[in-house]
Design goal:
With about 180 residues, the protein is α+β, with helices and mostly antiparallel strands. It has 4 helices and 10 strands; from the N terminus they run αββαββαββαββββ. The protein has 2 domains: about 40 residues; about 140 residues, Oxidoreductase, molybdopterin-binding domain (Sulfite Oxidase, Chain A, domain 2), CATH 3.90.420.10. The longest helix is centred in the N-terminal third of the chain and has 38 residues.
Length: about 180
């Protein structure tokens, strides 16, 4: 084995070791972040206005959504497995929620939602203005329960005019207005 071949193998081993260590460290940070999120968000979610760095996160509680006035609507939750389920939901349009909380919003903005499970979805300003996106707190007349209790909530976003539920965000914990 030549000296150059040996040197290449040593460098390759060091790179693999560094990547393994980095992967482990990042996984640990992710686990800690998930624990912090899980421990603190069963009662509310937060809205963060990204284009205003001086603004504090706005907590949205179930009572805030009820105060706006719930709307009942039916949707069919189609999944990639071919199963579909008719659901009667109660919630408010995201547009009404943003208006109620005094958060400036236009067609040029977008909202990114984050679920406790790490899922992200992005909604355009046009979708929000057309009231296609809802924040849901009840399904079939019952409050949504948390992920730990086998539910989809306590908050969930629903895209009313889409065939599949791919962009629904269960276990909603955060919204970022961009």
């Amino acid at each position: 084995m030549s000296a150059e071949s040996r040197r290449t193998r040593i460098i390759l081993a060091l790179v693999i070791a560094a990547l393994a260590i980095a992967t482990f460290v990042l996984a640990q940070l992710n686990i800690q972040g998930t624990r912090q999120i899980t421990e603190s968000t069963d009662e509310y979610f937060e809205i963060i206005v990204a284009n205003d760095p001086t603004a504090s996160p706005i907590q949205v509680w179930r009572s805030d959504i009820e105060e706006i006035g719930l709307r009942e609507f039916s949707v069919v939750m189609n999944t990639s497995t071919g199963l579909s389920e008719q659901m009667v939901c109660e919630g408010v349009s995201l547009k009404k929620l943003l208006d109620h909380r005094g958060i400036p919003f236009s067609r040029d903005n977008a909202v990114v939602v984050v679920g406790e499970d790490g899922y992200h979805a992005r909604y355009t300003g046009l979708e929000i203005e057309s009231e296609a996106i809802y924040v849901v707190i009840n399904v079939a007349g019952e409050p949504l329960t948390s992920r730990r209790n086998g539910g989809m909530g306590p908050f969930m976003t629903v895209v009313r005019r889409e065939q599949f539920a791919q962009r629904w965000c269960k276990y909603l914990i955060e919204m970022r207005v961009e």
